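Hi C.,

You asked whether I'd gotten around to modeling the 247-residue construct. I have! Everything is below, sequence then structure, no commentary in between.
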Amino acid sequence: MKKLKVLGICASPRSKGNMEYILGRCLEAMRRNGGDEVEIKRYLFRAKKMNPCLDCGGCYLSGECVIRDDFQRLKELWLEADIVIYAVPVYHLGLPGQLKCFIDRLGQSICAAHSGECNGKEETMPKYLKVIAPLTLGVHQVSGQEQTIMQIINHALIMQCLPVSGDAWQCYTGAGGWTQNREEKDAIEKLAGEGDFSTMALIKAIETTALRALQLARVVREGLIACREELAGDAQYRFVLDKHCSD
């Protein structure tokens, strides 16, 4: 059985801080629950250059984004992954610009490269069926956490993937927390060390999100293997069938 590949993306441009901490807690839980079954990679936006989409149409001619920066490497990792964990700080009630640039260019370039393979000339996205989980953190209590989570969920749906959350009551649509107006880079780690109630609820949400993401990825893998003959004639499933069912 092939290993499940996990990609943890820290979308904060800051050096070692709160987002890296909560991503680390999630990946630790993934490792505890998955053991040798999972292969984990981590990607940090820190010191990376991610330019915005120019809507130039170049990717429709070559199948690749014409802008050369750190986008290409993250796109490769995203395509390889079975589970993508986005650890996202709240900026102005939503996604930070660097991550939005990646998401815009990912959708455009993948659609350009692969949509025609699915249904002739019609623009149809392949079924990537990656499990996508959002973790988010704001400085203030109600400062855009749910909106940021919904942006990631919408991204998952557009990319023909499966959004997942942890368990209620701590987690309905994704794991979201706040640093209680503290701006230190290690604020969440300190609050967790103090046993702060809302921070411990966030940690619980992160851990159950990791577990449910892993379980759903297993269901996807086993379901594809079980249904491969039925799905083989549908070009939209070609990518995931090649990924999970090839020798």
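If it helps when you're writing up: The domain at 4-245 is CATH 3.40.50.360 (Rossmann fold).

Thanks,
B.
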